[in-house]
Amino acid sequence: MSWLVTGGAGYIGAHVVRAFAEQGIDAVVIDDLSSGRRGFVAGGTPFVQGSILDGQLLESTMAEHDVQGVVHLAGFKYAGVSVTRPLHTYHQNVTGTATLLAAMEQSGVDRIVFSSSAAVYGTPDVDLVTEQTPKHPESPYGESKLIGEWLLADQAKAAGLRHTSLRYFNVVGSGTPDIYDASPHNLFPLVFDALLDGRRPRINGVDYPTPDGTCVRDYIHVADLAAAHVVAARRLDAGESLEPVYNLGSGDGVSVGEIMTAVAAGTGIAFEPEIAARRPGDPARIVASGELAARDLDWRMRHSLAEMVSSAWNARQAASGE
């Protein structure tokens, strides 16, 4: 018996696969390598290169590896780009999820942990986001993740699917030096790339209604995130009930200015950030309560901001051969 991890060659997915292995849970990875990296998948873990849009491949993989559950991380994850590529985003994220659920039903696989996103909330008008905060996604990406949650809920009613969705916020750090965040859109990679290129990292906006004028976000360590997936999978395997959605948040935000200070300290590279104008649509603050996940998924912040920075920097340096 094993768990299928879609998108398991990505930054987050590869950490989830490693966390499963550490807990003695067999996993098989399917990934089309559009953004994932084959080298992120640990040796000994079965790997299938292919798309979640290929229902026959999904069914044959589930049969061959005796799959009992799915962690669904595959998808097009660039919120900003999704605004200019809405049809691509919906095809990958909505049609892909529907295809996966159909293959699961056909294969008798009845449990799934879904990678959702804080993007379902849009720009919340509360200081602390909870699972009940109104959903107002502001991009096709956020909309596609909310639709994914609806698909799971509808399939649960129709076919008895056991499921939970984990809404991620800003995932950073590294649990192992050979897996790093290579996204061209995330803050940590952007800052590290600037430093390695001899450029000044940029802050977009310093006039927000926050203590230091920069945006406040909820940063969580990828290894902590992966550990929550293990607990969710085990509880579904045990037939225990879970909430349909959980926020994986810290409850305490960190500003972009504070991130810059922590990066300077963690890398040993002193710099003054370049100040640029606000980006349209950037809310001043998004911070989430993780109380529900703490109750049910042993969710907690096991890593400090300094550890988030140092682990991410070490992995990034290892990747560049420095």
Automatic annotation (TrEMBL):
The keyword NAD is assigned to this record: yes
Pathway(s) of this molecule: Carbohydrate metabolism; galactose metabolism
Enzyme class: isomerase
Catalytic activity field: UDP-alpha-D-glucose = UDP-alpha-D-galactose
Every NAD-dependent epimerase/dehydratase domain range: 3-249
Pfam families: Epimerase (PF01370)
Keyword RNA-binding included in the entry's annotation: no
EC number: 5.1.3.2
Alphabetized UniProt keyword annotations: Carbohydrate metabolism, Isomerase, NAD
Superkingdom in the source lineage: Bacteria
InterPro entries: Epimerase_deHydtase (IPR001509), NAD(P)-bd_dom_sf (IPR036291), UDP_G4E (IPR005886)
Cofactor(s) needed by this chain: NAD(+)
Stated family: Belongs to the NAD(P)-dependent epimerase/dehydratase family.
Protein name: UDP-glucose 4-epimerase
